[in-house]
Amino acid sequence: MAKRYLDAPVVVMNENEDVTKVLLNFYMALGWNGFDTLNPKKVRANHSVYENIRKAMLEKCPNVGKVGVFLMNYGPSVCNSVPHDKVQLLNGWVA
Hints:
Layout: E1 3-7, H1 21-30, E2 43-45, H2 47-60, H3 64-74, E3 77-78, E4 86-90
Parallel strand pairs: 2-3
Antiparallel strand pairs: 1-4, 2-4
């Protein structure tokens, strides 16, 4: 199987969690166990899913630059061919 689509997880954070926990929770909801190597380049989301993640992070850290750089390095790829509210997982997204 080269790729698969899953419903995009709802991004949820507890009040005292660090901003980086947004992405950790997101990837864990997709099936990442927290230990295997994760390749965020092989996790694709449409723009609306990405924006939900970005907004959740900005609620915890209003520094747009820091959030943008963090998402650029660790966030899912944005791909407009991915259906609304779906995430595409390519082979090798975890190893």
